[in-house]
Amino acid sequence: MQKQVRYSPSDFNNVFWFGAFESKVNPNTGVSVSTFSKKEKMHYKAQRKTINQRYALVGTALENTSIIVIRHSKLSDLYQYLKIADKTYKIIDCSIDDSNNYMTYDFLTIKESKGVN
Fold first, then answer.
1. Among residues 29, 65, 30, which one has the least CA distance to residue 46?
2. Which residue of 18, 58, 72, 106 has the smallest Cβ count within 10 Å?
3. What is the pLDDT of residues 78-115, one digit of tens each?
């Protein structure tokens, strides 16, 4: 039997926005510019990696990633990007808990993004 992960509601004290990049026309130049458009607001908890986990990821595509924990939501599958403060991140992996338990959490592996990748 899998161990149920428990977090306190006060752990989810940070906020991020799910969103997407949309093409908008710059009114001054007439050039189409890709900008992040906020869609859904969520609370999250930052999950730390152990030293062993960090060393195991060296040299892989997951080397400079972070993990955040959110309450289970169908939004995890809908969006590829999210914004925390002024930084945009691409969702690399979603570990979704879709069991029938009362409190379930999704673990999102994210990597900083400069735009549409």
1. 65
2. 58
3. 999 999 999 999 999 998 887 877 888 999 999 998 87
Element spanning 17, H or E: strand 14-25
**What SS3 state is found at 27?**
coil
| Cβ atoms of 20 and 35 closer than 8 Å | no
Nearest to 98 by CA among 116, 71, 58: 71
Q: How confident is the model at residue 3 (pLDDT cuts 50, 70, 90)?
A: low
Reference 38, options 76, 113, 92, 88; nearest CA is 88
Q: Are 101 and 4 in contact (CB under 8 A)?
A: yes
Among 14, 32, 13, residue whose Cα is nearest residue 23: 32
Buried b (16+ CB within 10 A) or exposed e, 55-65: eeeeeeebeeb
> Residue 50 is encoded by which pair of tokens?
């152990």
**What is the pTM for the complete model shown?**
0.83
Backbone φ/ψ region at 17: left (φ over 0), alpha (ψ -120 to 50), beta: beta
